[in-house]
Specification:
two-stranded antiparallel sheet, globular, three-stranded mixed beta sheet, 6 helices, about 15% strand, alpha+beta
Length: about 160
């Protein structure tokens, strides 16, 4: 299945695709509303909660508008590269979570660090700051610029 055919099939499903699906699949976050769907050999996450999806969509769209310069993009392309998408998803969420109290967490089996629930974090963020456009995005940008899937200096090659 080629990428365009996969995208069309995924979009034809009634549930909207999870905007932070890659961050969830990599274990950085969890979401109580995400549902795993298999399409051919690929897996996709879809959101089962419309108000939760609206919160995610609002922050995700604002992220793309505000973080273009942090990603080195003057005009945001239709589809972000994998690494830039991960920077927006994970770095953007980590930055947003600094505005709320420590979220209810569970321990990730992979790295024994707390994992936040995305939907719950956005509910708490909206309770603190009802209009997300009022967020101080200049405090979030360093999280996006700093995030990298590869950790530098992990050891010398043998």
């Amino acid at each position: 299945m080629d990428d365009e055919q996969y995208r069309q099939t995924r979009n034809a499903i009634d549930l909207p695709p999870c905007l932070y699906g890659q961050a969830l699949q990599y274990g950085y976050f969890v979401c109580q509303h995400a549902r795993n769907i298999s399409l051919g050999e690929r897996e996709a996450l879809h959101c089962q909660h419309q108000p939760g999806f609206a919160n995610c969509r609002e922050y995700f769209d604002l992220s793309l508008q505000k973080f273009g310069f942090a990603l080195g993009e003057w005009r945001m392309p239709a589809h972000l590269t994998f690494n830039k998408a991960m920077q927006v998803q994970i770095g953007g969420l980590q930055g947003a979570m600094q505005f709320i109290d420590a979220p209810n967490t569970e321990i990730s089996q992979n790295n024994a660090q707390p994992v936040a629930d995305v939907a719950e974090s956005f509910v708490r963020l909206k309770a603190e700051i009802p209009d997300l456009r009022q967020l101080n995005f200049s405090l979030i940008v360093p999280y996006i610029q700093r995030f990298s899937l590869r950790k530098r200096g992990r050891g010398k090659p043998s």
